[in-house]
Design goal:
The protein has 9 helices and 5 strands, in the order βββαββαααααααα. The protein is an alpha+beta fold and about 190 residues long.
């Protein structure tokens, strides 16, 4: 099993990178958070998961070990394979998933990540007992994420789509007060 790689990025694509490790190029599927820091020519260390199928060996890469652990937990859900798990992690940060699962709140998870309600419910039900036994520990609910939910709700009530509200709010950093987040989001949405 290939669990960790260090090497030089040869190429980046929309959902993957090619990493050269001792002269061998590995195609590694990844999430946007890893792809944002990946630039051709840079050295990088990646936690990986090797998915073995009958006709393919696919590598999935993660910036943080906790993202890999969450990916593996998602794979324990009936009907969720590696492509679905990477898609879920592309829509939601590990913190958002953990917070939604630990608070037993699929609506929060759906609202913060854009994951469908049925998928969010399935994730919460399947992982709520498993999460406490891993390195994620006890409830890590983040106040800033709760403020973001308030801001998203406010923007939706003002007529913005939930998707536009979520995308705009997720880009706002450094503000803790929901009113300030809403003001900044309204300014960003009007540009």
């Amino acid at each position: 099993m290939i669990s960790y790689l260090e090497g030089k990025i040869i190429e980046t694509n929309l959902d993957s990178i090619i990493l050269s490790v001792n002269g061998v190029g590995y195609l590694i599927h990844s999430t946007p958070d890893l792809l944002q820091i990946a630039e051709a020519g840079n050295e990088i260390s990646i936690w990986t998961y090797l998915a073995v199928r009958e006709n393919a060996l696919d590598l999935y890469g993660f910036k943080e070990k906790k993202d890999l652990s969450l990916f593996k937990l998602l794979l324990t859900i009936s009907g969720v394979g590696p492509k679905s798990a990477i898609s879920i992690l592309s829509n939601a940060t590990a913190e958002t998933l953990i917070s939604g699962i630990q608070s037993n709140d699929p609506a929060y998870l759906s609202k913060m990540s854009g994951i469908g309600k049925k998928t969010a419910e399935k994730i919460v039900v399947s992982l709520k007992d498993k999460l406490g036994t891993t390195e994620f520990g006890e409830n890590n609910t983040n106040n800033s994420e709760n403020h973001n939910v308030v801001a998203i709700d406010a923007l939706v009530s003002l007529g913005y789509s939930e998707r536009d509200a979520r995308e705009t709010v997720s880009k706002i950093k450094g503000l803790e007060n929901p009113e300030d987040i809403i003001k900044k989001a309204l300014k960003d949405l009007s540009n």
